Every structure is written in C-alpha cells, then in structure tokens.
Design the sequence.
C-alpha cells in the first residue's frame, strides 16, 4: 500500500497568487471596462534582444541538419557554455573552472533541488521575508527551518543566525525586498559559515540589476567563499529567459563541509544532476551562449536598464506621495511600507480600488512581510507610467 | 555543520558508459585509422522533421515581439499543449482531462522525481535489467528496492512481485531488452496494484515504436489503470527531442492509494511541480505542439519507421549468424544473448576487436543483464549497414 510523503502535509498552502487573481477578477467584474494595471508579477515582459534571438535561431537550425543535429548532451551542460561562463566570471576577477559550473533549466529547480544533497538533520536558515521556494523545498526535504528576520531595523538585510545553523539561503538582490547584501555583511556570513562548517546557498538571480559597483554580484568576490558557498544563477532576469529556461549553479571544488574532502560536494551535485536531470534544452543553451557574447551582453544590459528605469519611475512617484520605499535601486523590486498601519492585504485592496494597480502583498513572502507591499519593475514603460500616474492622482493618503 | 545526504553513499558507481568510452579509446589508440561503428547509445541521430522545425522557429519568433513574448508560463505546461495531448489520448480511446497531464522537460526528470511524493517506507519493485534511473533515484529517496527478474524464462517480461510491494516501475517497451508488456500481462499488474493499493509508474517513452497494434501503448488502455497508475511519456524518442527536452506525466484524478481521496495524488504532483519546477521551455513546447499536429505526427512516425528499419537490418543480420535476439520488433533496442557463454564485457571486447562495433554490455543494466548485450537502432542507415556487414563478415562464432 503506497503512502504519500507526509512532509508535503507540513507545507502551508500558499494562496498568494490565486488570492490576487480572485480579488482582481472580482474587482473587474464589479467595474467593467476599467483597465487593470499590473505591477505585481516578477516576470519579464520585453522581447528578447536581437543577438539572443540569433542564437536561438541557430540552435533550431542546427537541429535541421544531419551534420549539426544533437540529441542528449552532457547533463552538466554544453562545454562551450560552461567555458563561456567561466570566462564571464574571470572578467569579474573570479576564477572558476568549467567543471565547477553546472548548467540547468533555471534557478528555481536548482534552488529547490540543492537541499536534497544534504542530510535531513541539517538546520536551514532562511530570511523572512523571502522567495517561498527555499522554505517549501526544505519542508519537503524534512529539514528544520529557522528564520532570519529582515525588517526596517536591519535595512532588510538579516543578521547572523543566533542558533546553530548548517545551511544558509541568501537571496541577494533579494526577492521581495529589493535590498542587497553589502560586501561587509556578506563577509560576516562567509566567516560564520567557515567557522561553523556551514554552507551558504547564494541565489544571485538578480545580480545584473546591481548598479552600485561596490555591492557584490557574486559571493565568490568575498574571500573564503569558495570554501563554503554554492552560487545559483540564471539567464531569466538578465536576458529575459523566464520562459526559455536556462540557469546555472556553481559548486566549487574547494567547498568543504563536515568530514568532506575537497571536490566531494562538486561530485555529489554532479551525481545528482547526471542521475535526475538530462540537461537544459540545446536551443536554450545556444541562446545562452549568444547572451554571453559581447553584443549579447551589451544588449541585455540595456534591457536591464530599461527595467531599472521603470523602477526609478515607480520609486520617485511613490516617494513624492511620502511613501516609504526600500529596494528598487539595485534590484527590480520595490518594497513599500504600507501607509497608515494597513496590513498588506488591506493596502492591496486600497490600491486596487483607488488606482486599479495590482501589486503583491508582502505577507505572502513570510511573517515579517506583513505591513509591506511588493511592486515589480518588470512591465512595459507605458503601463508603468500609467500605474504611477493613477497612484499619484488617486491614492488617498 | 552541514552533512551530506548519506543515501548517496548507497549508490553504486555506474561506470558503464565511462568504461565503454575507455575501452573504445584504448582500441582506437592501438588501431589508428580504424573506423569505430557505434550501436551503443540510445540517442536519436536524425534531424528534426520540417513541421517540428517550423514549430520551434515559431516559438523563437514569438519571443521577438512584444505582442507575443511570453515569460513564465504555467509550471504544468502550456494549456494548448496539455489539451493537444488530451486529444492525442482521446484518439487512442483514452479519456484524460488536460489537468491530468503535466508537461515536463523530459521523462528522465519525471521518472526520477516521481518517487519523492511517496513515503520512504514504500517498497519499490523494479525490473532487472532496466534503465538505471529508477534504481538510483529510489536509493537516493531511501526506499527499499526489490527486483523483478526479467530473463529468457519469462521472455524478459517480469512476473508479479512475490513480496509486498507499494510502487512498481514498468518500462514498456523496455530499455534495454526491447520487450513489450502484452495487454494480458499488464492487466495482471494493474489487478495486483488495485488489490494491494499499490501504484504503477509506467514509463512509456518508447511507445511509438510499437508496431503490433495488439500491444498496449498506454497503460490507460487497461481497465482499472486510471485508479492505480501514473504514466510518464516523452517527445525524445518519438520526435527526436532528446536534446530539445520535452515530456509529460499523467496523474489521473481517479488515482487512489492508501487513505488518499480521489484527486489527492494529482494535487500532490501539482504541488511538487509548482514548487520545484518552472515549466518546460516555451520554445520546446511550441515544437511539441507542432509534433502533435497532423503533419507533425505523420512525419515523426516516418522517422520512427526509419529507426525501426535499422532495427530490422540489425536483427536479420545477427539472426543470420545464429545469434539469439530479443526485442527490436516493437522497440529500438535489440537484446542479444552473448554467444558461447561469454559475459557481457567479454562480448563487448570481442565485438569491438573483431568488428569495430561498439554496443552496450547488458550487465550495466542490472545483475540479470549479465551474459546479454544491447544494440541500439538509433543511428544513420549507412553506419548501421556498415556495422552489420562488419559483424556478418568478421565476428568469429
């Protein structure tokens, strides 16, 4: 008699996006013809850049000819792409060999799967608020989770764990708060990990939105990080690959945890991926290669700046109303303190009713998100401008 | 102090393909200029068919325009593709709703991940020999595994488990033996599962190679299967998507295991996929839709027949030498009894040395594979013909 994995029963239902859909639909029904302006979703909206499109087309074309057709590739990814990423890091002063880089179909899968290679006795620290995948997958993996509170008291960058912790998930730039670890703060965490033989899982999916050159875009810019950190990265937000699906994970050979020998964790992830994954799409990988070319990087950087200009428009608009805003400077997310002590959902309703703008209640990202609200800079400029105009003209404060 | 998931230590190292590479390289070094003929790998070799290429091109084109660009889609897959698959099953007399079909990036990931939604106390039955992913992932998932022996005594279709079993993996047509469950045999397993509230994971990735219309291409053609079976499928072998990456898994709402209510397992897999997966590539999905169109199906069927003609050429050639062959009639794999009581590796060396043909030792697929050898029908015709000619002329029997 087969039984269900009971860890799944410990998951709380996350009604966040379905509740947003429900309330938005109800508003539309009650107000036919009113245009809804969506600033809620962390999803890219702009077409792929020309060089990347050429790469994807090349990927398809190769599959049309017997001489260039490819079936299964290496589960770890096309060696050309692994080398290109090794070069990409090299230009940032970070030395990684190609076999320390594992190509995947996106950061979400890797962020979800990485915990499975560690013992269930591990205690996992996760910021609150944060992207829900870390919490849910560690619950499924039956690990004890402790929360590192991120509040306005610590500028939404958590302090070191106070209790014994084995695995620490860091998302920087953070989703949803849009705040970024400083070098000094990240060094504190690296030192903690080295001292405690803990491991840091560093999700850098939004690194390309960092404008301030002093902020770390990779954890490997911090001394000692290669001995204690895994970095998860993605083409989703930097090149518009949210639908194309491509990311990577770095597992340095120098990484050591309790009783492990150098290279062992790298081999373990290699075993996990070769056993349970069959490589990212060869078409997507050809697109990724194009994104890393000189032209590709130039064009995708411009696209990132387009979204960051959106962030600036939203930020300035809301600040002019006296709202308190975090993030949005080195990240595509703005984290808004709900005015007048409103809860996240109360502000959601107010914003929708008064301005027709849909955002994301902060409470959906953890207990400490209550009383906050996330707006996303992903969107067409015209839509963003309309939303900000509506807010400025109609939000009753 | 983080620790490694010790289940990984219970995995045996599978040196199969690396050992093949090593011995082949050594032969090439000792015999410079000799052409190696590879019939070992279960990987497609022929270019994608025109209609599928058009679909993929359309997928890329859509990403070039603001009106048609898409980012994150539903984790469960593009609703158009889910509906097209529901229609595809309907034409085979099987009724499945679109929300019982989950699109993935390939059968391997689903076959690997599916066990994670069941309790670790579950006893898992796996045929021996078989595709190694089922065994390895159940070891990683810390489940007890029992083996169902497939030998020439049962025509390489296993008998029912003799001890209490909760989850049964069936791969039909089988990799590596190329044998196929009959309706009667599959009904026995379905009845066993219904009686024992066990669950069957039916891997049908090679179903389109079945030529005999009386053999089941989907488990859902068997009465009662919807109450006890999950089916895993793929575009890899039917449409040449081994590198493009696209598959699907069916979790019927009628599926019931111990203490579960109808729809619960479907919801559980939905939760797993929405939490840990971010959907298959939108480009690949557009290609999948094209493959399911009338023209797409016609063209991909012709490609399958091309590989099956290869199988026939290999089969007839080897039989003419008096070798005993299983499979290769309704599957792209041929399972050869090693002559003269040779072990799988002894026959590997003999075949390589005498005929320059590289195949796959059966012992790499399980204990019962010892003394057998797998040849694959995937390959260019010219290469297959050369290999068979070499075997016929030079294999010393």
Sequence:
């Amino acid at each position: 008699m087969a039984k269900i994995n009971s860890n799944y029963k410990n998951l709380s239902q996350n009604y966040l996006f379905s509740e947003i859909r429900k309330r938005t639909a109800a508003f539309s029904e009650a107000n036919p013809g009113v245009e809804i302006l969506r600033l809620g979703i962390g999803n890219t909206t702009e077409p792929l850049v020309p060089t990347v499109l050429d790469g994807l087309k090349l990927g398809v074309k190769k599959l049309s000819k017997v001489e260039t057709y490819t079936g299964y590739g290496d589960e770890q990814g096309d060696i050309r792409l692994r080398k290109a990423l090794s070069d990409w890091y090299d230009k940032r002063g970070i030395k990684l060999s190609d076999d320390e880089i594992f190509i995947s179909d996106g950061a979400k899968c890797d962020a979800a799967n990485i915990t499975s290679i560690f013992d269930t006795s591990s205690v996992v620290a996760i910021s609150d608020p944060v992207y829900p995948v870390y919490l849910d997958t560690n619950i499924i993996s039956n690990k004890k989770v402790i929360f590192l509170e991120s509040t306005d008291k610590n500028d939404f960058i958590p302090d070191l764990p106070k209790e014994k912790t084995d695995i620490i998930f860091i998302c920087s730039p953070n989703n949803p708060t849009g705040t970024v670890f400083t070098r000094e703060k990240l060094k504190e965490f690296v030192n903690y990990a080295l001292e405690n033989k803990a491991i840091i899982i560093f999700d850098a999916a939004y690194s390309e939105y960092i404008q301030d050159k002093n902020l770390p875009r990779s954890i490997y810019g911090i001394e000692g990080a290669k001995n204690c950190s895994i970095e998860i990265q993605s083409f989703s937000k930097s090149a518009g690959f949210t639908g194309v699906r491509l990311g990577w994970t770095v597992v340095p050979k120098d990484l050591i945890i309790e009783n492990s020998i150098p290279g062992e964790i790298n081999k373990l992830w290699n075993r996990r991926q070769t056993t349970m994954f069959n490589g990212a799409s060869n078409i997507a990988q050809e697109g990724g290669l194009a994104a890393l070319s000189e032209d590709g990087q130039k064009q995708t950087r411009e696209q990132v700046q387009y979204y960051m200009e959106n962030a600036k428009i939203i930020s300035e608009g809301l600040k002019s109303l006296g709202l308190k805003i975090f993030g949005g400077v080195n990240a595509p997310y703005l984290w808004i303190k709900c005015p007048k002590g409103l809860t996240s959902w109360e502000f959601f309703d107010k914003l929708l009713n008064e301005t027709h703008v849909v955002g994301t209640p902060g409470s959906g990202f953890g207990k400490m998100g209550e009383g906050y609200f996330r707006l996303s800079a992903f969107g067409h400029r015209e839509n963003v401008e309309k939303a900000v105009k509506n807010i400025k003209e109609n939000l009753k404060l």
